[in-house]
Design goal:
- The protein is mostly beta strands.
- It has 2 domains: 77 residues, Chitinase A, domain 3; 53 residues, Thrombin, subunit H, CATH 2.40.10.330.
- 9% of the residues lie in helices and 38% in strands.
- The strands form 2 sheets. Strands 1, 2, 3, 4 and 9 form a 5-stranded antiparallel sheet that branches. The protein has a 4-stranded antiparallel sheet with strand order 5-8-7-6.
- The longest helix is centred in the middle third of the chain and has 7 residues.
- The chain is elongated and about 55 Å long.
């Protein structure tokens, strides 16, 4: 039987923390420092895996900012994930009649029963162009964390 050290963040830990995620240019995406801290379970998909990996081994009270190069936090942009979807397919998914505009995030049913999303780029008479990359794919980000508690 192994003993897990709860004085530091481990896989499966419940971590209460403040965090700020911003683009390299300083554009803030998420900031819990001005509100209640977040409590996350590592491995549950609440943060991107590379961000979770940064937390591993940190102790209560740790406060620092990590710079992640382009594509590290949310993967590189993949041109194969920019795809046309026929309006017939959108109809089959019950999406005709919905008012979509370029820039909208649209969720789809996956064949395995899950869900996935794409950003609508354009619509024409027969199809719609979607970008299924994560919206932050290919971006450099700064990830500031302050660990408040670990369970």
């Amino acid at each position: 039987m192994s003993i897990i050290d709860i004085s530091e963040v481990n896989p499966g830990s419940h971590v209460t923390l403040h965090y700020r995620l911003s683009l390299a240019d300083g554009t803030e995406l998420v900031n819990t420092f001005s509100e209640r801290p977040a409590t996350l379970m590592l491995g549950a998909g609440q943060l991107a895996p590379p961000l979770e990996d940064i937390l591993l081994g940190l102790k209560v009270g740790h406060h620092s900012t990590f710079q992640l190069a382009q594509g590290v936090a949310f993967g590189q942009r993949n041109p194969d994930l920019i795809q046309r979807v026929s309006l017939a397919t959108l109809r089959e998914n019950g999406m005709v009649g919905d008012d979509f505009n370029p820039g909208d995030l649209v969720e789809f049913n996956a064949p395995d029963g899950g869900r996935f999303a794409g950003v609508l780029k354009e619509v024409n008479e027969t199809s719609a162009l979607f970008d299924f990359n994560h919206p932050l794919a290919g971006q450099a980000v700064a990830f500031e964390v302050k660990i408040i508690g670990i369970l």
